[in-house]
Amino acid sequence: MKKDLFSSQGLRFDGSSYVPAFDQKRLTGQIRKIYNCMKDGKFRTLSQIQEETRAPQASISAQLRHLRKPRFGGHTVEKRRVGDSSNGLFEYQLQINNEPANENPKQEIKTEDLLGVSLRSCMGYLTELKGEMNPYYDKSLHLEIIRYVGQYGI
Fold first, then answer.
1. Right CATH number for 20-95 from 3.30.470.20, 2.30.38.10, 1.10.10.10, 3.40.30.10?
2. What is the pLDDT of residue 15?
């Protein structure tokens, strides 16, 4: 039985502002919609994909980049200019990789890198809380993270 690549547990997103509790479900649904829109192999502009999926164009672009990564299927995303070359308009085509997704690509991941991502995510979240004068904002945790970031240069 083939594993559902787009199950909430099947995808591993990352980034400095990524917080799984807030973003995992939304991003999984978004990439699923974009994949389903593009799997027919037709060329489409970001605007056309947006019309079909209701996702923001910046998110579509990011998700198309994700679909190239081994852990998201290692698909090929072709890109070509449309119309006058000076207008900067492109169309994209998804070419499905029928091989199983490589969830553990061979790349060295350092603990410091993971710590940095986690700390930056926490910092972003705590800064949002602070900005809203939220009662859950924890100044001591915020200062502890700042100290770690300074100590490890992340």
1. 1.10.10.10
2. 82
